[in-house]
Amino acid sequence: MTRYDDNINNNSTKPFHTFRKSRVKRTVDQGKVATILKCNTSDTKVAEIFALAQPDAIWLCMEHGSLDYGQAENQINAAKIYDVDSLLRVNRGGYSNYIRGFELDCTGLIIPQIKNFADAKEIEEFTKFPPIGKRGLDGGNNDGKYTKLDMNEYLKQSNEERLVIYQVETPEVLNDIEAIAEMEGVDALFFGPGDYSLSLGVPGQMDHPEVVSARKLVADLARKNNKIAAIPGGPAVAKTYIDMGYNLLNIGADVVALADYAENLVNEFGKINS
């Protein structure tokens, strides 16, 4: 098991005054497929249990559910102990809704419901430092080691090692998807088949021809432009998606695990107690 301190530069006189590198990027750069486990709950222990399992990242969500910034910070810190990335899906709003996650030291932001090129461009401006975007500088938070990181290194590494992941969830965004995929500030395209099928009027039909076509297009454009291609995909479909070009897969979620575990236990006991 890799721990955060295993990745510290041992030649440094202050070894913890360094910027943590993205594990997802490390895995993908080696030509491998990176994995995610999703935390729908806001409990720190669940995040740590998932991190112990050693996926490349845990997915935290502020778009749906009750997760607040304090809870997110605890989950992010729990993941870092085990050198696991944290990908925070934001609740869309103004500028601060985007940068706060990074300043808590999450490794990536997942941006839901990208509408078009203009929308994507605004996100790029919010989330990347110049010269790519227009993000404002603080450096006094978790990600900047509370002012103990060299400023130039902090700016450079933030742009390179902190991922901005754009979710493709509607047919409308496909009108601009080529231009979005070419943007320097886009680190990954994340195809959302659930919302995409819903917006088509065929909810849950993951094998609908238009869903399949969009899924392939997103993977093709991501790989063509040297971006990460992300998608939800458990063991039953993982090989299909990997063969299609996806290299970041969400393979499970805490609520699914808990719900299935509880139901199976009750059902098994019911057989004994009938």
Q: Determine the CATH superfamily.
A: Phosphoenolpyruvate-binding domains
Strand residue percentage: 5-15%
Rg, please? 19 Å
Q: What's the helix-strand series?
A: HEHEHEHEHHEHEHHEHEH
CATH architecture descriptor text = Alpha-Beta Barrel
Question: What would you call the structural class?
Answer: alpha/beta
Shape: globular
What is the strand arrangement across the widest sheet?
1-2-3-4-5-6-7-8
Spans of at least 5 consecutive residues whose pLDDT stays below 50 are 1-13
Q: Provide the CATH top-level class.
A: Alpha Beta
End-to-end distance? 44 Å
What is the number of helices?
11
Number of domains: 1
Task: Classify the fold: give the CATH topology.
Answer: TIM Barrel
Instruction: Report the sheet with the most strands, covering strand number, pairing sense and barrel closure.
Output: 8 strands, parallel, barrel
Counted beta strands: 8
Helix content: 40-55%
Calculate the mean pLDDT score and round it. 92
